[in-house]
Structures are given as structure tokens and as C-alpha cells.
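== Sequence entry ==
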Amino acid sequence: MTWEAFSTTVLPLLGVLLGTCGTLLGQYLATRVDSKRLEHERLTAMRAERKAAILSFLDAAQRIELILDKQPVFKDRLDEKTAQEDLHKLWLAKKSVELVCSPELAQCAQEYTSALHVMLRNPDRVADPAEKRKTRYLMMESARRDLGITGAHLKRDLPQIGTSDG
């Protein structure tokens, strides 16, 4: 076989082979970029969903805390229907946290909700404000972890809790 015959037969085949390899490599890289982009979008959407559930829960909890803050002053004028509706919204928001957040955050939300529920439903019992602060603190720290916020814990006026990860 002469060089002319070899070059007219083999070199075009090598060109086709190199072109195929280049196409496959390009498709692989494009697919990899697309999959990373889709994963990033999925994680962003999941974080947004968690954040919305947490904010909804905190909004409902804040309404109950507002009622609790007013309770000693306006004990006779407590609107029972509004309190009942706000408590219902709190429990519903807690369930949304359970659906989209970590089990640790769901448990903290359960404890915080239970503490607020007991304080609202038993106004004659002396409520321990430290218990409310403790459960709120644990809820907030767990929410921060769920949202990917790292670093030191927020400093609060809770010497009995310290800096444990609770």
C-alpha cells in the first residue's frame, strides 16, 4: 500500500473519528453544565420554599407573642376568637415547616408552638418567659442552619442555654 492510497483512505477516517470525539466531548461538557445549573436551581427553589415556610411560621408565632404580651394588661378584653384563629394559623404554619424543613427544625417548631399554645391557653398559670425565649432561640438557630447560614450563634440574653448546639 502506497502513501497516496493510505492517505486517501485512512486520513478521512481519522478526521471523522476526531470530529465524533469532539462532538461527544462537547455534548458531555454541555450536559454537565446543564445538570449543575439544574441542581443549583433546584437547591435555590428548595431554600426559597424553606424560607417561605419559616417566615410564615414566624409571622404566626409573632401574632401569638403579641397576644401574650398584651394579655396581662388587657386580660378582660382578650379577643378569644382572634386568639383561636391565630393559634390555628400557628399550628398550620408549624405543619408547613414539618413538610419542607429538616426534622431538627420541625422538632424545634413543635416545641416553640407547644410553649406558645400552653402560655396562651393557660393565662392563669404563671408562664415561664424563659421557656418561650429558649424555644424561640432554638427555633431560630435551627432555622439558620436549615437555610445554610453558618458561623457563630446569635448572641441572646439566655445564659441558661449557653452556646450549645441544642
User: Anything to note?
Assistant: Helices lie at 3-70, 80-100, 103-121, 129-146. The chain is about 75% helix and 0% strand.
